[in-house]
Amino acid sequence: MASNQTSLNQAKFVLPNSDLEQQTTTLEIETKDKDFDYSKRSQWLRAAVLGANDGLVSTASLMMGVGAVKQDIKAMILSGFAGLVAGACSMAIGEFVSVYSQLDIEIAQMKRDKERVHGGGREEEDTNEEKESLPNPLQAAAASALAFSVGAMVPLLAASFIKDYKVRLGVVVAAVSSALVVFGWLGAVLGKAPMLRSVVRVLVGGWMAMAITFGLTKLIGSRGL
């Protein structure tokens, strides 16, 4: 009888410990996976936010500059559309060249490392396997062009259906300001930075870009240059 009680007591203590170890191991694995996924997602999301912010500010500034000398809605929309296409192509080409150059450097470094470790035995096979974890130039180019286009669409859509000149400028500024607040908030969340400071920095920067473009273009246009 005493032997049975001892066995039961041991079972009571061993089983919970085993379950606790399994739960701890599972939680550690899940935490590692979540951290890894978050790290990969944050890099892409941060690049997307920066690209969209670039498209928003540059296209809006271009439209405000043209709007400073021409009140015609057609001229303003065409300038914004040209800025969208040119900017998206420029972003895509620049990102493709940049990422491809980085890819070549990293692959060359991998080959040198494999030669030192394996002596060239499984070098090519191991290098091809590790290539899959490297950034893809085509994906980076497409993502940059898409992000820029999304940002550039904000001022274009805001100005498309408003014929009155002053109201159109005001709506563009309001729409761009709202989008800048959103982008500043996203940048703060992804970068774990102070939210208010990030929003103010992005908002003031966008306002300055539009104001400087509008003011200088107005000045040059008034002088007939």
Automatic annotation (TrEMBL):
Reaction(s) this enzyme catalyzes, per UniProt: Fe(2+)(in) = Fe(2+)(out)
Keyword Transmembrane listed: yes
GO biological process, one term: intracellular manganese ion homeostasis
Keywords: Ion transport, Iron, Iron transport, Membrane, Transmembrane, Transmembrane helix, Transport, Vacuole
Family matches, as InterPro entries: Ccc1_fam (IPR008217)
Region (Disordered): 114-134
Coiled-coil regions, chain positions: none
Role: Vacuolar Fe(2+) uptake transporter.
Name of the protein described by the UniProt record: Vacuolar iron transporter
GO CC, alphabetical: vacuolar membrane
